[in-house]
Amino acid sequence: MNSIWAVVPAAGSSRRLGGEIPKQYREIAGVPLLEHTLRALLESPEIRGIVVALDPSDRRADAIDSLADVRVQTLPGGAERAHSVMAGLQWLSQQANKDDWVLVHDAARPCLPLEALTSLIGRARELGEGVILAEPVADTLKEVAVDGQVTGTVDRQTLWRAQTPQLFPLFALHTALARCLEDGLSVTDEAMAMERAGESVHVLRGPSSNIKVTVEADLAFADWVLRTKGGH
């Protein structure tokens, strides 16, 4: 592993959360959510640079102070998350060396601790293969028919809930994701593309506080986590 880069897809419109303001620009703990996410990545000296894919028509990004950091590059994102990630990977493929790695982190995960990020990078260096943060599933899972009837209970012992960051060799991920998009597949995370390409993917247990903000209650929880971390 040579240099490590980061890609943050942040061009989404937050259809599930609702409201007029995309969730990456909603204020929590005093600043926009995206600002917290970028600060968490910039806190690591191991990350050489960050590429943020934005909606070029949304000027709210002007309020994100970290976008002015020398290590941060912005570019236009796509209609879907995977297209924004691909835009970042394509830009990096012109800048990076063949042995460089890239981690992809959701813009809506503002509570990433430096300890978890450092552990992820260390584990990937140790294995020489892709690693993602994830958390074991704790709830009982049910299979349910279209009419709402339970048809079975799923064994949860081998099930994990994927988080980000997800860290892979840059050019291997670029190739894997490009093939998925060419085949018209809906790619929900980078590990999915690497799995389909036959690449090894490992999990490292991430903290339960590393949530992805999806609904209104998540904003309140993330606000509490960040204010607690900051001593407020």
Number of domains: 1
CATH class membership = Alpha Beta
Largest pleated sheet: 7 strands, mixed
Query: At the third CATH level, what is the topology name?
Result: Spore Coat Polysaccharide Biosynthesis Protein SpsA, Chain A
3D architecture notes:
The protein is an alpha/beta fold. It has a single domain (4-229), classed as Spore Coat Polysaccharide Biosynthesis Protein SpsA, Chain A, CATH 3.90.550.10. Helices cover 31% and strands 25% of the residues. It is built from six helices and eleven strands. It has a seven-stranded mixed sheet with strand order 5-4-1-6-10-7-11, with helices on both faces. Strands 2-3 form a two-stranded antiparallel sheet. A hairpin with a 2-residue loop joins strand 2 (27-28) and strand 3 (31-32). Helix 2 (81-93) packs across helix 4 and helix 4 packs across helix 5. It is globular, with a radius of gyration of 18 Å. 38% of the residues are buried.
Supply database-style keywords.
6 helices, Spore Coat Polysaccharide Biosynthesis Protein SpsA, Chain A, alpha/beta, seven-stranded mixed sheet, globular, two-stranded antiparallel sheet
Short description:
The protein is of the alpha/beta class. It contains six helices and eleven strands. It has one domain (4-229): Spore Coat Polysaccharide Biosynthesis Protein SpsA, Chain A (Alpha-Beta Complex), CATH 3.90.550.
